[in-house]
Amino acid sequence: MVRAAVLPAVGAPLEIAEIDLPDPGPGQVRIRLAAAGVCHSDLSLSNGTMRVPVPAVLGHEGAGTVVAVGEGVTHVAPGDPVILNWAPSCGTCHACTLGEVWLCANALNGAADVYAHRASDGSDLHPGLNVAAFAEETVVAASCVLPLPEGIPLTDAALLGCAVLTGYGAIHHSAQVREGETVAVFGVGGVGLSTLQSARIAGATTIVAVDVSPEKEELARAAGATDYVVASENTAREIRTLTGKQGVDVAVECVGRSVTIRTAWESTRRGGRTTVVGIGGKDQQVTFNALELFHWGRTLSGCVYGNSDPAKDVPVLAEHVRAGRLDLGSLVTERIALDGIPGAFENMVAGKGGRALVIF
Question: Does the global pTM surpass 0.90?
Answer without folding.
Answer: yes
